[in-house]
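INFO batch 0412 | record 1 of 1 | parsing
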Amino acid sequence: MKAKDVAWHAGNWYVNAKSIGLEHEGFLARPDAWYTEAMYRSSARLVAYLAQKYDIPLDRQHILGHDTVPGPTASTIRGMHTDPGPYWDWRHYFELLGRPFEAAAGPDSGVVTIRPDYAANRPRYTGCVSAGAPCADHGSSAVRLYSGPGESYPLVKDVGLGSAPTTGVNDLSSRVSTGQQYAVADRKGDWTAIWYLGQKAWFRNPKQNPTAVNATGRTVTPRDGLKSVPVFGRAYPEAAAYPAGVPAQPVSPLPYTLPAGQRYVVGDRLPGQYYYAVGFDAASHRVVVGKEQYYEIQFGHRVGFVRAADVRVVPSGS
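INFO prediction complete | emitting tokens
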């Protein structure tokens, strides 16, 4: 396909219509068979070229895995893609892109960038070969999240999935990935808490061998007086923006909220937008742009969207 065309690849029409999708051959549970150095290098060359041509920032707010694309509606969350999975080496990939993940702030910063040592970071997963069976020991870009500062605490839960979190290789409930940025919620000894899916989520982050580095950036929090704000899986326009002949799309929130007192790292500010294309005849296609503005945020493992009118932007150090 040409870059100007829209491909159905991410399971979210809004994201498909506003992105360039690159498919990589392989299976996430068999990284050594598929994630070769040749693949990393050829992919990075292509992404670097496209980023320069289309002025796309080289960061994890703009270079998404399928596994970070949100479900557009509540009913789609369970069926979303989980690739490239925990074994894709994002740290190496961004080094090839010339944008390594570096510390950018002091020890008391309000934002962290996830950055474990890929080779040494070896969380246990199951289900690579058969359901419930342990996966082979392997380096990973993913860091596991707990409901308290210790591995004796339960894994954090993703209410959108409606099931208890597991260590399954395709279960994204309770993990973050290299390069993703989150607002710090707390620190205790070797453990750091971040705001994640509306809750505190803890990961082991010892000073001598950190799994995250301190960063700066902008965050959003609910405007004063709001107890919480809805989170969306797509940033669609308000109903009044649709012209005659183009059905207005529902703006339905996901089963998450962003509570007062919590902060989430911001990507872009975006107008509500919908690409109407029900056939291959380009003459019938329409781009609907509304007045409603949204922010893309790193809400959980996947990104989400909040209305700009519902939140205020706060520097990470404030």
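INFO post-check: The mean pLDDT is 95.
INFO record closed
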